[in-house]
Design a protein that fits this description.
mainly alpha; Amino acid/polyamine transporter I; Rossmann fold; 2 domains; two-stranded parallel sheet; elongated
Length: 645
Amino acid sequence: MSKSHLAAPKYRSLAEVHETVPVPVRGAWWRRWLAVTGPALMVAVGYMDPGNWATDLAGGSRYNYTLIWVLLMSNIMAILLQSLAARLGIANRRDLAQACHEEYPVWITIPLYILAEIAITATDLAEVLGSAIALQLLFGMPLIYGVLLTALDTLLLLFLSHFGIRKLEAVVMSLVGTIGASLLIEIVLGQPDWGGIIQGFAPTLPDTTALYIAVGILGATVMPHNLYLHSALVQSRKIGRNREEIKQAIRWNTIDSALALNLAFFVNAAILVMSAAVFYRHGYYEVAEIQDAYRLLEPLLGTTIAPLAFAIALLASGQSSTITGTLAGQIVMEGYLNLRIRPWLRRLITRLLAVTPAVLAIIYFGEGSTTSLLVLSQVILSLQLPFAVIPLIHFVSDRRRMGEFAIRPWLRALAWVVASIILGLNVKLLIDEVSAWLAEAGSRAWIVQVTVVPLVLALGFLLLYVTFYPWLHGRLEKVGRPRRADVHAAPAVAETGIVTPEPYRRVAVALDFSGREERLLTEALRVAKRGETKLFLLHVVESPVARVLGPEAADREIQADRERLEQLARVLLQRGIETEWRLGAGEPALELARMVDELGADLVILGGHGHSGVSDLVHGTTISRLRHRVQASVLVVPLDDTPQA
């Protein structure tokens, strides 16, 4: 039996914003809507990033309005898949990376993680190049300097994240508004053929190049990193855990996804329509470079506002999508590897992985290679997409994981149709591209045969295994082999979703040495079980010396605190409870949260004084700040002298 959908994961997704936005259960519908809206908009930004610009410009200039149907099909797929990702996050309280880490063995999760990192690097590469090109168009900055400057985006994101998820969403919304307004100007000036646009919704692929661009559009629209991102961002909303509240949250997030992604569809359609109306109409069929599009807009439309609006929209697109791309990188690393590193370091790694290939391409192939690199990045995204889509469909179909919120058979069938279309297009593209490489290589075709072909076969085997894993897994369960996610799971009680809890394994006790430590330690002994629970006694020194030199400083206060911790640890050891102690220094809430996460504690016991103060370790405000920063449960023990009822 698997973990119930009500069971909480050990580590929260995007812990710094997890459940920080309350969603009202009752009241006006618009209040619930405003509380829910936001995650889908953040996701939709990824559907209008600079990578889309390259594929949309190439499609519109070469094939007129013919490929609009690809945008529409991709958008419908995106709405379905993003709503499934939101459902996983809401009902199962796991993001897609966490679910993969739980479900699959290590030899599967590692390549899946590597593929996800490649996808995020490809996404960030598009954002880096798009922003750099926009800076070049607006200010004449050399492209390589613009690429290097985009590394500073990590500092901007780090700064904005301190203000909470809602402020971050507001910044993204303003950038999306800028993109929409700028492209609206382009459409009005371009005066497109509306009859031709309607005809473009009829599916057709004129040639092999159209297929390459169509797969690029698909990869730029249905982006794998957005599935990881959406399943995590919905958990920033604090919803109740009863059936009706979960059902309502899924419904509102599905509506939110549809509205936000339809907005992204109109943005992408506007780029393609503008390209067709301006470039194809005037006989410029090979406008694939964003820089060429910028230079041609003014002479073709006869106004200087057109290229200016184009460049501003491109810059806003790059800056908004970099926020979501780096968040996705954090989610993937933490979820797949169960590894938590400082957010600024994770975001810097993500950006450097994208900046490096961009710089090398500009140095060795020149600035004219950037758009080809953009289109290639989107094709890479499309090729990686099945490795995210197929596990997602399996997870949301699994009643053991999702309970009653598992998707119904008709929706499951529709999801598999979408996955089949994506997979079919990718297989066709791979066959065409590898065949072309073999033909062009001539006498050196053996290099492709010993490098590319084995890699493609290995990826094919991995995809087949991921696809059929649940059925193989079901057979293994019958002979008594447990699911990886269930090794430590407790048996379910009846069909209520309630499980018999395991004892706490690692309990942290925050001590402020206010003279009431015995109450905290009594509660610790209440939950601790000999031989099963390990206690950690924690104390944070706030003295100026400790803040500067750390807990290793040898002043009198630190030495006294160290001796008290050692003495209390000895007392607990004598009672048969395994105990260690830790001494920290600095701001209490932040330092305590750091120690708790490093120790992997699953319960934190703190004292509540019932009053405010500066020198105490645990105040009401400290408790409030701490509980949003740790992954453990928090038990607050009253320490005032008020009689308890």
